[in-house]
């Protein structure tokens, strides 16, 4: 009976000993060897940034050229303007305006006297020192009886807006100014839409502006393609090089600080549109329903395997003899004046009709295309794709731009909305990364990815501060750094290294281990059952060691 | 020694500087010229060689940064890749089948089976290994081939075998650091490679000679090779204007004698229609030249009759060999919507005799047996009556461990001492074995190179699918400068078009030939082994542990079943079992005698059985074995 008791005690000791080795040696060893390498990330900063409201500051100086306006009038105008511009704010993106209202200086009055046209006045005022700084706009109220008179508010090429003298109620002009500033000069709605798109808001109603423009990238590849379906009949030539240098290079150079645009050109021969145009009165035409089908067959011949930047394609199609002349009809059945169409986030196609030679002419006839006709269409489309166009309105005029085809205030709008977009994208990527890391334990975070995340967080914080201070250019550059770093961190292939570790291989590794564990179940049961007996009497020590010696080698295998 | 080597190889390369004599017809408005050519030659054993060559010459310099921005004939997809990775020269071949040098002579473009790529990067490029890795990835996307497998395990920098074929500065041409060479002998070439290759042609395959490409026929041939060669060239003799040459070649060998089987008389006749199942309707309007050349040197007219008759018959000599070409200007033959179907008819039965082998050819094979050791032997035949210096290059994967000491060159049992040897041993999983030998072949001799290797064990994840098929070893590359132009059909390095090979009157011919690729089997494990090991290990553990556990934790004790308390489950079991055994015993063995000392038996009986036995009236005593654990649990 004593023997039996002793046996039970021995069992208990053996079981406890084995359990101890398991917990103290086995578990930490297993934990250490199967651990997924992960650098600690600033999760709290990421969370804070995701909730941070983006605020941007804009400086507005209103200058009156009117001799009639008194100090008091200006003060009232200033107050009205503040009220108008303050207004209701969206919770996530806030605009803040710093306004100054004053009478024009004598120097500026002289400019008004000197200049013959509004354009001249615009450039004179802009060249005046300290006038044309990014994010700093001047609104000039022009007298009605001066040499330069305007009937509608007019935007200059730099950062000036001219508005005519109001007929009555001088301080009431604040409503007009606030309207112009919010809708056109700053384009609050665009900024907000960019933000929402980048954050991936689901229930966003699609609108044309958001859908057609491409998302931000550090570079764009623009390709101009001439499609010549029958070079044996009509040998079309174009001087793409000079066309691009005249129309696009100033624009590209202007943008080079912010995004790199590479413009290339190519010619495709014997490439046909796979859609058959409809025929009417010896004329061929495409309806809007046909147009989507035209792009896919052409797409197969575009694209470059050496670049990952978004590609913007502009195609000139010269119809062959069998489909000349070719037009595009709108939904109402009228010919489009531009004879071009536009595909959102992809590019545009322009149909360039060239009269083919008569069928009995020998050999191909050469024809050189007029680049100005082509580039006019493409520059407009490029502005649409990159979202430079402000919504056209009957209520105001815009001074025509020079070779750069981009106005200073438009560039500001672009920088502002891209900056907000980048911040939103970057924050959304980091947030998703943090969420993924929480959900999927197999993701590896290496040191360099950790650094990218830290860079992105730091750059975002800096960009938010700069934007709040009104330093638009620096804020944009920081936001670009943030978005590049966060996208790199999110899409790095090293994250996936262990993600696809096959489950069956894991099974193969753990089976020998778990099988053995299965045999320990009776052992643990035994411990449970023997525990009361152990409390009752004293164990035989020598027996216990004996058991221990048997179990230990078994566990060491594990 | 060094001078001797340089002379044959490099003099050819640098003649490009001196004798560029291409009569370009440059139009002032068009920057580029494009030409399409087809060369047809009846081979001696009833095969017909068709060699298409499409040459684009771009009037631009690769050194100009703005060159690769505006394209006309040159494909933009390729140009973007070349410009991004700063490529100076690129040579890619994708081949299915082995060229039979002994019977077919030399091909216009030599290529090994599978894919071969060699690239010279521009001198100012840095971090070439990274550039190469990115380049092969971009090209694999462009050509739909697994070029991305050309990693450090397969890439080498040969020192002497490959030199720039276009214009290049002298210091650069000798610096193999700018060069990368890799081959994938396992790669299979098919329609998906032809389509992207065709797309690079300005007229694609819609019009012109490329419209003859019928994938069904092309891939039903004895040999098929796609080539793409990009190099900078000079456009005039004094090299004042630079040009960029893109040469796309397609070589296909049809076995017409086989296709015409059943016909006793005309079995060697061929026509475009019989070979491609298509005839020619037009030419590429962008091409400045669309020509077809038929080599009738072997069976000259009147033995062979061509229909329609050629525009011109050229009789030339190349390196002492008399050649006869029938030339067709396809632009004339297809004008006015006419269809062109060239037919060749033989007036009498063709007699196949002994074929004169070309001046230099080789055979290579694996030697040895078993899965531990092996060897590679290459036999080089020199049929010329002069000495011939050759460069022999081998790239062998790291898992065939070559012994440097085992490399032997001998001719008729007499060892040949190589002039120069360049051997870089392989590194496991990172670098292949690389061997370059320069040595002399005696006149009319057979020289044998042999080496031995050990087969390495691979990790089980390193085996390719179908590992028992074997592992491919790259073709050896043999480079030489021949003093005779016998059977030599390649375009001279100073020329661009195939036409230039017709008027080549030089006395030296640079030849690069590729031997057979090899298939070596490595020790291959049974891939179900890990699973078996797991099963076995589990079984062993289960048996060993189970019995050990039983031994240490169970003890035998006598228990009186009458006094044992039962839990409800046991009672139910006993009840069911009792009824069953009662029925049984009443039916069958009423008078069963129970062993008095049945303890041995009862030990094997389980608890259920023994408790069931309690219902038996005949039994007097039962010894029941009870697990200590269960004892405790029921108490």
Topology:
The complex is a heterodimer of chains A (558) and B (635).
Chain A: H1 2-33, H2 43-51, E1 54-64, H3 71-86, E2 93-103, H4 106-114, H5 118-127, E3 136-142, E4 154-155, E5 160-164, H6 173-185, H7 188-199, H8 208-212, E6 219-228, E7 234-237, H9 240-247, H10 249-255, E8 260-269, E9 278-280, E10 283-286, H11 291-299, E11 311-317, E12 326-328, E13 340-343, E14 347-351, E15 365-368, H12 371-385, E16 397-398, H13 408-439, H14 447-469, H15 472-491, H16 503-536, H17 541-557
Helix pairs in contact in A: 1-16, 1-17, 2-13, 3-6, 7-13, 9-12, 13-14, 13-15, 14-15
Chain B: H1 2-18, E1 32-42, E2 47-58, H2 76-84, E3 87-96, H3 101-104, E4 114-121, H4 128-143, H5 170-173, E5 179-184, H6 191-199, H7 215-218, E6 223-234, E7 242-255, H8 256-259, E8 270-271, H9 272-276, E9 287-295, E10 304-307, E11 312-318, E12 321-329, H10 330-333, E13 343-346, E14 360-367, E15 373-382, E16 388-396, E17 400-402, E18 408-411, E19 414-415, E20 420-424, E21 433-441, E22 445-455, E23 471-473, E24 477-482, E25 509-514, E26 518-520, H11 529-553, H12 568-587, H13 599-604, H14 607-612, H15 628-634
Parallel strand pairs in B: 1-9
Antiparallel strand pairs in B: 1-2, 2-7, 3-4, 3-6, 4-5, 6-7, 8-13, 9-12, 10-13, 11-12, 14-15, 15-22, 16-21, 16-24, 17-22, 18-19, 18-22, 20-21, 23-26, 24-25
């Amino acid at each position: 009976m004593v023997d039996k008791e002793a046996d039970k005690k021995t069992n208990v000791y053996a079981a406890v000993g084995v359990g101890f080795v398991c917990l103290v040696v086995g578990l930490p060893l297993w934990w250490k060897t199967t651990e997924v390498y992960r650098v600690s990330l600033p999760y709290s900063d990421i969370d804070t940034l995701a909730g941070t409201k983006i605020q941007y500051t804009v400086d507005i100086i209103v200058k009156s050229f009117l001799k009639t306006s008194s100090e008091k009038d200006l003060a009232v105008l200033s107050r009205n303007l503040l009220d108008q511009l303050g207004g209701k704010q969206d919770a996530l993106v806030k605009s803040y305006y710093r306004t100054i209202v004053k009478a024009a200086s004598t120097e500026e009055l002289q400019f008004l006297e000197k200049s013959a046209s509004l354009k001249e006045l615009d450039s004179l005022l802009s060249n005046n020192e300290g006038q044309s700084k990014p994010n700093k706009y001047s609104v000039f109220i022009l007298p009605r009886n001066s040499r330069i008179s305007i009937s509608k508010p007019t935007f200059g090429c730099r950062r000036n807006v001219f508005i005519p003298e109001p007929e009555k109620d001088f301080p009431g002009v604040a409503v007009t100014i606030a309207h112009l500033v919010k809708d056109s000069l700053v384009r609050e709605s665009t900024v907000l839409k960019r933000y929402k798109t980048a954050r991936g808001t689901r229930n966003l109603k699609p609108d044309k502006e958001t859908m057609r423009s491409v998302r931000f990238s550090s570079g764009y590849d623009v390709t101009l393609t001439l499609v010549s379906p029958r070079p044996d009949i009509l040998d079309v030539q174009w001087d793409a090089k000079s066309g691009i240098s005249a129309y696009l290079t100033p624009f590209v150079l202007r943008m080079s600080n912010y995004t790199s645009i590479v413009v290339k050109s190519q010619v495709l021969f014997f490439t046909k549109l796979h859609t058959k145009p409809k025929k009417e009165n010896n004329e061929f035409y495409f309806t809007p329903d046909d147009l989507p089908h035209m792009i896919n067959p052409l797409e197969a011949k575009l694209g470059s395997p050496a670049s990952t930047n978004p590609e913007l394609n502009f195609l000139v199609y010269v119809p062959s003899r069998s489909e000349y002349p070719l037009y595009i009809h709108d939904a109402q059945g009228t010919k489009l004046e531009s004879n071009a169409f536009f595909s959102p986030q992809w590019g545009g196609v322009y149909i360039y009709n060239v009269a083919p030679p008569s069928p009995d002419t020998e050999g191909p006839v050469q024809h050189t295309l007029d680049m100005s006709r082509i580039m006019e269409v493409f520059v407009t489309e490029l502005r649409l794709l990159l979202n430079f166009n402000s919504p056209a309105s009957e209520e105001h005029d815009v001074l025509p731009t020079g070779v750069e085809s981009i106005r200073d205030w438009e560039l500001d709008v672009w920088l502002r909305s891209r900056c907000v977009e980048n911040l939103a994208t970057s924050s959304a990527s980091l947030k998703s990364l943090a969420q993924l890391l929480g959900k999927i334990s197999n993701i590896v975070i290496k040191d360099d990815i950790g650094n990218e995340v830290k860079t992105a967080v730091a750059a975002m914080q800096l960009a938010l501060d700069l934007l709040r201070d009104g330093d638009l250019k620096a804020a944009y550059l920081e936001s670009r750094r943030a978005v590049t770093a966060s996208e790199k961190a999110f899409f790095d292939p090293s994250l996936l290294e262990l993600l696809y570790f096959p489950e069956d291989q894991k099974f193969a590794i753990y089976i020998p281990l778990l099988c053995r564990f299965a045999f320990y179940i009776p052992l643990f049961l035994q411990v449970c059952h023997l525990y009361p007996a152990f409390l009752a009497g004293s164990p035989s020590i020598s027996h216990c060691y004996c058991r221990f010696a048997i179990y230990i080698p078994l566990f060491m295998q594990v | 020694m060094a001078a001797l080597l340089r002379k044959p190889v490099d003099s050819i390369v640098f003649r490009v500087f001196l004798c560029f004599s291409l009569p370009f017809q440059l139009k002032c408005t068009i920057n580029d010229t494009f030409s399409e050519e087809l060369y047809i030659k009846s081979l001696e054993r009833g095969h017909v060689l068709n060699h298409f060559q499409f040459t684009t010459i771009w009037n631009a310099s690769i050194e100009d940064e703005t060159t690769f921005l505006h394209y006309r004939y040159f494909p933009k997809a390729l140009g973007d890749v070349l410009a991004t990775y700063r490529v100076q020269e690129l040579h890619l071949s994708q081949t299915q089948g082995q060229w039979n040098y002994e019977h077919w002579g030399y091909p216009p473009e030599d290529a090994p089976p599978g894919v071969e790529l060699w690239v010279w990067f521009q001198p100012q490029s840095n971090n070439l290994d990274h550039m190469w890795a990115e380049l092969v990835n971009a090209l694999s996307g462009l050509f739909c081939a697994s070029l991305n497998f050309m990693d450090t395990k397969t890439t080498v920098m040969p020192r002497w075998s490959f030199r720039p074929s276009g214009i290049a500065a002298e210091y650069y041409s000798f610096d193999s650091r700018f060069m990368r060479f890799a081959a994938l002998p396992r790669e299979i070439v098919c329609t998906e490679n032809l389509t992207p290759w065709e797309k690079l042609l300005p007229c694609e395959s819609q019009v012109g000679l490329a419209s003859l490409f019928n994938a069904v026929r092309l891939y039903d041939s004895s040999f098929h090779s796609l080539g793409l060669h990009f190099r900078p060239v000079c456009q005039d003799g004094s090299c004042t204007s630079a040009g960029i040459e893109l040469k796309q070649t397609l070589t296909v060998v049809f076995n017409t004698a086989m296709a015409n089987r059943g016909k006793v008389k005309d079995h060697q006749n061929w026509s475009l229609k019989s070979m491609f199942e298509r005839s020619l309707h037009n030419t590429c309007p962008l091409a400045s030249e669309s020509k077809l050349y038929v080599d009738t040197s072997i069976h000259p007219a009147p033995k062979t009759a061509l229909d329609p008759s050629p525009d011109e018959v050229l009789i030339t000599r190349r390196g002492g060999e008399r050649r006869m070409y029938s030339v067709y200007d396809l632009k004339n033959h297809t004008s006015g919507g006419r269809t062109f179907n060239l037919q060749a008819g033989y007036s009498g039965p063709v007699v196949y005799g002994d074929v004169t082998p070309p001046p230099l050819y080789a055979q290579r094979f694996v030697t040895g047996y078993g899965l531990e050791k092996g060897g590679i032997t290459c036999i080089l035949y020199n049929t010329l009556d002069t000495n011939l210096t050759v460069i022999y290059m081998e790239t062998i994967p790291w898992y065939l461990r070559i012994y440097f000491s085992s490399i032997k060159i001998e001719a008729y049992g007499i060892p040949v001492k190589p002039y120069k040897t360049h051997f870089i041993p392989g590194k496991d999983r990172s670098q292949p074995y690389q061997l370059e030998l320069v040595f002399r072949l005696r006149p009319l001799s057979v020289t044998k190179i042999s080496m031995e290797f050990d087969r390495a064990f691979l990790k089980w994840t390193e085996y390719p699918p179908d590992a028992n098929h074997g592992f491919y070893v790259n073709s050896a590359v043999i480079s030489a400068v021949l003093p005779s132009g016998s059977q030599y059909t390649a375009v001279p390095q100073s020329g661009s078009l195939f036409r230039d090979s017709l008027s080549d009157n030089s006395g030296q011919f640079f030849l690069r030939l590729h031997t057979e690729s090899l298939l070596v089997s490595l020790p291959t494990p049974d891939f179900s082994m890990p699973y078996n090991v797991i099963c076995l290990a589990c079984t062993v553990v289960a048996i060993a542990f189970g019995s050990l556990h039983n031994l240490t934790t169970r003890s035998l004790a006598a228990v009186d079943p009458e006094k044992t308390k039962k839990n409800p489950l046991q009672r139910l079991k006993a009840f069911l079992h009792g009824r069953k055994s009662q029925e049984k015993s009443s039916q069958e063995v009423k008078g069963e005698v129970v062993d008095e000392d049945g303890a041995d038996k009862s030990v094997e009986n389980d608890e259920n059985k023994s408790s069931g036995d309690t219902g038996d009236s005949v039994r007097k005593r039962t010894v029941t074995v009870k697990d200590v654990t269960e004892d405790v649990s029921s108490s």
